[in-house]
Write a structure and sequence with these properties.
heterodimer; A: mainly alpha; Fumarate Reductase Cytochrome B subunit; 2 strands; B: alpha+beta; Alpha-Beta Plaits; 2 domains; two-stranded antiparallel ribbon; 9 helices; 10 strands; 18% strand; disordered C terminus; binds protoporphyrin IX containing FE; binds iron/sulfur cluster
């Protein structure tokens, strides 16, 4: 049984994510998961054994806050050094069209292992666009409501009360997405090279052509090459 | 359930001497908290981590009666259906058989969920211990057969401790008397508030709003949505996502046995 496709350094590869994108991606992964597991202790109504892993409830609270600051720093780092990347990402999300709708509607079959014929996709396919929008929104909400919960005395009481359901709902929707995203980006066979794009930064050119035809054409295709020259 | 025991506070007998505040501090070994002078007689605006009870001084102008000056002893109301207990993720609160809501500082992690869930905003954060604190209804004293410190000290008879049902009858009679003797709006507070009432009974000489008390205290809709909908139901989306991924992991490998995506990619 294969877990993820083998990394093949000797075939033609193209860059998919630069180092800033990769650092922020994995930085968010680690801080998100730390926040998640320390937060779940309270969400599930006081899980003693989970709290014990972080040195008790106080420890878990501290880890939650340290990871939260780490996550905030990741956002700042990304904005400072990868601002263009963020803009390109958002722009690509807004190229949501018929191809994306088609992608999302037949994707559930692909998800469970059937091979489907998808229309050509831009840099991010319909599902990735959806994942991006949900996660961007939910993480922003988590950060905003989180700081309000951390320092309740400096905010109006009504806003503090509002932050609790927001923090929990945003946690639920983002975690839902993260579960799917984590699986699709690694062990899902149909996603092929995806994982290496975020881990090593490059993907096989033939994979890029297959999965993100529009993006490949625009970035590495003949026309793009001609323009570059 | 054992018979409920509670405090009756009769505003009409209170002289605002603040003996209860001092007795409370003494009994609970709480340091003095100095607040800046705000232009009135109040020593404290609100409860705080080291002040479980205080006397509010409320001035208001009435077109008929002229300026009125109301006092109110303010502290935890020991709601019979206590919201602090529900929101606390550490289950640091418990109800005694006789109705006191008590808070266990050893369990508390200082998240302050209870501060914001409480319809009266009573539990307050205390930096020194990194926990919240509040009135205990002197449950340790009561369980030894004593009265709460505030009741014991009250020189004017404004505070009485006893069985809730008896005190309610007493309060009823007192309200009747007050209504007939110059306080037509006199009322009981705490009998039915929040549905099941509180385990503190007030006899007020005027409507609750004239004492800065919520006329119809409520748990915020946000708190309710959070506790009664999101926590019990919405979280199930996560195991569903994990389950779907696990199924997909297996079906992927069953259906795609021979095919190697590492070669041609996959459409
Ligand atoms: C900047 C980011 C964040 C900040 C400042 C923040 C802050 C907080 C604070 C102050 C609490 C109260 C708990 C305590 O006192 O220990 C809390 C609870 C919680 N947080 Fe966060 N958090 C952040 C991000 C996240 C993330 C990314 C997740 C999950 C993916 C998360 C999930 C939770 C959960 C589940 C709870 C428990 C809520 C409950 O009791 O129902 N938080 N957070
Ligand atoms: S501050 Fe303490 S008592 Fe209040 S909800 Fe949090 S853990 Fe419970």
């Amino acid at each position: 049984m294969r877990w993820i496709p083998e990394y093949q350094p000797d075939v033609e590869r193209v860059e998919r994510f630069n180092s800033v994108a990769r650092i922020t991606h994995w930085g968010h992964t680690v801080t998100f998961l730390l926040c998640l597991f320390t937060g779940l202790i309270l969400f599930l109504g006081g899980v003693d054994w989970l709290a014990a892993i972080f040195g008790g409830y106080r420890g878990a609270g501290l880890v939650h806050r340290i990871a939260a600051v780490g996550m905030t720093l990741m956002l700042v780092f990304g904005m400072l050094f990868g601002f263009k990347g963020y803009i390109a990402w958002v722009k690509d999300i807004f190229r949501f069209g018929m191809n994306d709708v088609k992608f999302i509607s037949i994707f559930p079959l692909d998800f469970f292992g059937l091979e489907m014929k998808f229309p050509p996709q831009t840099r991010f396919n319909g599902g990735e666009k959806m994942n991006s929008v949900v996660l961007m929104t939910m993480v922003s909400l988590l950060v905003l409501s989180g700081y309000i919960m951390w320092f309740p005395s400096i905010f109006p009481a009504g806003l503090v009360r509002f932050s609790y359901p927001v923090h929990d709902l945003a946690m639920i929707f983002s975690t839902l997405m993260v579960c799917m995203h984590g699986f699709l980006g690694s062990f899902h066979l149909g996603s092929g090279e995806s994982f290496w794009g975020m881990w090593k930064g490059t993907v096989r050119a033939d994979w890029a052509k297959h999965h993100h035809a529009i993006w490949y054409e625009e970035t590495y295709g003949d026309k793009a090459k001609a323009e570059a020259e | 359930m054992a018979r409920l025991m509670t405090n009756l506070y009769d505003v009409s007998k209170c002289t605002a001497c603040r003996g209860c505040l001092v007795a409370c501090k003494d009994s609970n070994q709480l340091p003095a908290v100095m607040e800046p002078f705000k232009g009135n007689y109040a020593t404290h605006e609100d409860t705080n981590g080291n002040t479980y009870t205080l006397i509010r001084f409320i001035e208001h102008e009435d077109p008929v009666d002229g300026v009125r000056w109301n006092f109110l002893k303010y502290q935890c109301m020991h709601c019979l259906d206590a919201e602090c207990m529900k929101v606390c993720p550490k289950k640091a609160y418990r109800k005694t058989e006789w109705g006191a809501t008590i808070h266990d500082e050893d369990k508390c992690i200082g998240c302050q969920y209870c501060t914001y869930a409480c319809p009266f905003g009573i539990p307050k954060y205390r930096t020194r211990t990194d926990t919240v604190t509040k009135c205990t209804l002197c449950y340790e004293r009561v369980e030894e057969g004593l009265k709460p410190a505030c009741v014991r000290t009250c020189p004017s008879g404004a505070l009485t401790f006893g069985y809730r049902d008896e005190l309610l009858q007493q309060a009823e009679a007192r309200v009747k008397f007050l209504r007939a003797n110059g306080f037509p709006r006199a009322t009981i507070y705490g009998k039915l508030e929040l549905g099941s009432g509180t385990n503190k009974i007030y006899v007020l000489t005027d409507t609750p709003d004239k004492f800065n008390l919520p006329v119809d205290p409520k748990v915020s809709a946000n708190t309710w949505v959070w506790q009664d909908w999101i926590k019990p139901y919405a979280g199930w989306l996560i195991p569903v996502a994990l389950g779907a991924s696990a199924v997909s992991f297996v079906t992927n490998r069953l259906i795609n046995k021979g095919d190697d995506h590492a070669k041609g990619g996959h459409e």
